[in-house]
Amino acid sequence: STASLAAQMWGVNDDLNFLWCFPVQKSGGTQLKLVMSFPNYGQALFKPMKQERHEETNVNLYYFSDFERHNAEIAAFHLDRILGFRRVPPVVGRLVNVIKEIKDITTDHKLVTTFFMSPVGNACFYGQCSYYCSTEHAICGRPLKIEGSMAAMLPDQSLAPRRSWRSPWRRSYSRSKLAQWATDSNYCDSIKKTPPYDRGTRLVDLIDMSILDFLMSNMDRHHYETFEKFGNDTFLIHLDNGRAFGRHSKDEPSILAPLVQCCRVRRSTLLRLRLLSLQSYRMSDVMRASLSQDPLTVVAPLLTEQHLSALDRRLETVIQTIQDCLQQHQHHSDVIYDDIADLRQNLS
Amino acid sequence: STASLAAQMWGVNDDLNFLWCFPVQKSGGTQLKLVMSFPNYGQALFKPMKQERHEETNVNLYYFSDFERHNAEIAAFHLDRILGFRRVPPVVGRLVNVIKEIKDITTDHKLVTTFFMSPVGNACFYGQCSYYCSTEHAICGRPLKIEGSMAAMLPDQSLAPRRSWRSPWRRSYSRSKLAQWATDSNYCDSIKKTPPYDRGTRLVDLIDMSILDFLMSNMDRHHYETFEKFGNDTFLIHLDNGRAFGRHSKDEPSILAPLVQCCRVRRSTLLRLRLLSLQSYRMSDVMRASLSQDPLTVVAPLLTEQHLSALDRRLETVIQTIQDCLQQHQHHSDVIYDDIADLRQNLS
């Protein structure tokens, strides 16, 4: 059924695809998003486009009041896959008809009251939420269709309960305070001794995530999730990437703090990063090729060239950071967690 | 004392000028503005810059949720003067230090709580109001100074009470309804018979105002004011022009409805319009020269060249509209109200 949903989301015939979709506003979170239900297929989380791809986040905005970007959700899925993590559920871009595919078929009465025609005749709506849900921030078709991201929803919590973990390197979410990790350079020493980071792969999982986030400049990773059933011996789920790719002209070194402070990384991750720094497998080229398969590419490339070259620049920083770690430590194994040897051992 | 205030506002020494100014937030209205009090001199209304001069209003925004623009307030004062009306109180641009000239000296405790330093170290604040007063819409210095308009405040209502008049050509302020004038082409016939528009100059005053508004594309003229003391034999005050100059690429013919529907205009206004359409007195050139005297010109011209040439284009439309009126009416005097003959008669 996941395959059916994927086929449906990637399909070309809009009208057919959405005949049986029932959009309602998703509660929780600060910005407008819709849950699209496809009976017998599952659900998708729809985030509408709010700003042009070439616009960089306003320098005066804090990470916690930045817009969410539909193309960031899509690009994060591709980047995570290219890095070999595969921890972001599938996300695909779609053009959606504001009237036929949302207003006319929604069962969400509050949502319906927020639709209007703009002065130039575009179909608009704004929903109800705490940020950016007002007539000044309406989401408008041109004239009817809007771009958006469709993320495959994970199984319902009743079927596959998940646990949400507060990231140890979570930011302060305050304009005036700094989190402990931001001022304490020995912070990782205590985290390494704290369950669940004191055993298994949880710490290197977290560092993988911080590498992903640094590459796409996502400062908004306050939590991550796991499936409860697998306990602590499990992978992380990288949900909610809408605030990535806000700026291409600047890097944010603090996102890499887990790697810098712990000096620890999976061998498979390092090998993949090195591969993607080779001329023939450049990260920007692989991303461009991967993103070109998304349906929204017909409107415009999902990431501008500036964002793609920022990826190459940031990749160099990550590799250099690992080099520095290796020089600071006596034993290669202090830095590199050899997951490939582990895997061989398990298979033999 | 008006001269002193003007001198103070036009002065060059920032620190000296503002040593004795006490800024507080102005209540009423939907967007942030501050009242600056200069003891012994009077008060000025400060509207901070919110968007870049080259940005056009979003096509999906209705006139009643558009941003207010500090440069529109300044340019409206100059345009009104160039048209010979002199019905906009003096407005001048200023660079203001967010910390020293607002935060440190305000007595407005609610305002103080909204100041913060942005991630890149710019001084910001957002105030409290119904539109755009939130951290996502903060007003930020670069790093400390912000641009803004300073409008000389009229004498206090206790000294010179004013009356606020609802414009007969007020828009509906609704996304779905149209005002009566927008659908009834005989609307002016009834207005002409309704006091105070049935005698004196009130109707041509209103038409002057609509010409000003059409030229600067101001759709937000819901009211105008007069001084109570002068009764109905008085001039109009053109206050609150912050939503003018939102778009240069498009004209809004409906703003000219009073002229089109009433086919009546002051002779002195027509002569001034014709003068400003001559090659040697082109409106755009006169405006450019006039605006260049404003202190903010050192940052950037107050109006972009596109806005200046829109003025010339719209002026042609106004003159053509009057030509059409003259052709439709038998007698010249049906259209032209000869205020110059009136003036001669009064003087002889």
From TrEMBL, chains A, B:
<dbReference type="Pfam" id="PF06702">
    <property type="entry name" value="Fam20C"/>
</dbReference>
<keyword id="KW-1015">Disulfide bond</keyword>
<keyword id="KW-0325">Glycoprotein</keyword>
<feature type="binding site">
    <location>
        <position position="240"/>
    </location>
    <ligand>
        <name>ATP</name>
    </ligand>
</feature>
<keyword id="KW-0547">Nucleotide-binding</keyword>
<dbReference type="GO" id="GO:0070166">
    <property type="term" value="P:enamel mineralization"/>
</dbReference>
<keyword id="KW-0067">ATP-binding</keyword>
<dbReference type="InterPro" id="IPR009581">
    <property type="entry name" value="FAM20_C"/>
</dbReference>
<keyword id="KW-0479">Metal-binding</keyword>
<feature type="binding site">
    <location>
        <begin position="151"/>
        <end position="154"/>
    </location>
    <ligand>
        <name>ATP</name>
    </ligand>
</feature>
<dbReference type="GO" id="GO:0005794">
    <property type="term" value="C:Golgi apparatus"/>
</dbReference>
<feature type="binding site">
    <location>
        <position position="68"/>
    </location>
    <ligand>
        <name>ATP</name>
    </ligand>
</feature>
<feature type="binding site">
    <location>
        <position position="47"/>
    </location>
    <ligand>
        <name>ATP</name>
    </ligand>
</feature>
<keyword id="KW-0333">Golgi apparatus</keyword>
<dbReference type="GO" id="GO:0005524">
    <property type="term" value="F:ATP binding"/>
</dbReference>
<protein>
    <submittedName>
        <fullName>Family with sequence similarity 20 member C, like</fullName>
    </submittedName>
</protein>
<feature type="active site">
    <location>
        <position position="220"/>
    </location>
</feature>
<dbReference type="InterPro" id="IPR024869">
    <property type="entry name" value="FAM20"/>
</dbReference>
<comment type="similarity">
    <text>Belongs to the FAM20 family.</text>
</comment>
<feature type="binding site">
    <location>
        <position position="240"/>
    </location>
    <ligand>
        <name>Mn(2+)</name>
    </ligand>
</feature>
<feature type="binding site">
    <location>
        <position position="31"/>
    </location>
    <ligand>
        <name>ATP</name>
    </ligand>
</feature>
<feature type="domain" description="FAM20 C-terminal">
    <location>
        <begin position="115"/>
        <end position="333"/>
    </location>
</feature>
<dbReference type="GO" id="GO:0046872">
    <property type="term" value="F:metal ion binding"/>
</dbReference>
<keyword id="KW-0464">Manganese</keyword>
<feature type="binding site">
    <location>
        <position position="225"/>
    </location>
    <ligand>
        <name>ATP</name>
    </ligand>
</feature>
<dbReference type="GO" id="GO:0016773">
    <property type="term" value="F:phosphotransferase activity, alcohol group as acceptor"/>
</dbReference>
<feature type="binding site">
    <location>
        <position position="68"/>
    </location>
    <ligand>
        <name>Mn(2+)</name>
    </ligand>
</feature>
